[in-house]
Specification:
The chain is an alpha+beta fold and about 325 residues long. It is about 35% helix and about 20% strand. It comes from Faucicola osloensis.
Length: about 325
Amino acid sequence: MIETRSTHQALVIIKNGCQSLVTDLQPLSPSNPLNHTELWYGVWHSTHSPPTPVVVKQLLPHFNATHLAHFEQEINALHHCQSLAIDGTHHTSGIPTLYASNLLPDTLIFDQQQPQQSVGPCLVMSYHPGETLKSLLYANAKLPLLSLPQKMTIFLHSCQVVNRLHQFGLMHLDLKPANFIVKPNLEVVLIDFGLSDFDVSDAMGKNDSLNCKTYTAGTPAYMSPEQFTGQTVDKFSDYYSLGVVWYELLTGCLPFMANDYPGWAIAHCQQPVPFLCPNHQLSEFACQACQPFIDKLLAKRVENRINDLASIINALKILLNQ
């Protein structure tokens, strides 16, 4: 059953004693029964900045403990990235900015028309106009087909954003076309951090404020072999998922197919990496140039995958300049 949407017209945010307002709330997409959330477009008003477009993400009523845990995970991940950015340690290009959440300390959010009525768990983050990569590949027939240089540019920016996330010490663990927003200039924004976690092997260490994840969670078509087998995961699992996205972006189809979870597990853990085949959009040269990276990203064993994304980022830059 899909829950009824909220009917907020404006939200009041009190954060560290300062008041802001989100107005002009409009539904941004249909409610998502999988993660039990709804998205709203709004305008953030603050005394410290001009009116700014934002997204309000809220848990639907009657959420369960898993829904709440994933929602908290997203808030904590975005808050961590923003904290490091404020410190000047990193920059967050391609990662949404978290403006407020009523699950963080010293923050209250309530309906302007009904201040006595509490608002369920929600967050306010930056709005980024564009289409999801999934829409560009499949869903929206009105959009023009992507050229090979455009696909390579999108994947280059995707690798850069994921690499930036790893520099924050985080793994995304649910990389797929639906979670990349492609802007009109082909820059990429990564969204939906509900399964993200700290990389325990990263030098930044693990933050105990984030809950440990069940590593068999994810989207089966894009999960790494170690996610299916319940082994400890690290940034190499994101590399594998990027390999699936890269193959799909180049060919328009997934590298492996299955009908159910056990079938996906067998495919990702046992089936060999498919070869790229030349077609009207993919030249033989492009196949030869991209196949080694497909092979290294989709290696079944972690130790056989690429060591970092820098090599792919540099190779894509060279190919785009030829």
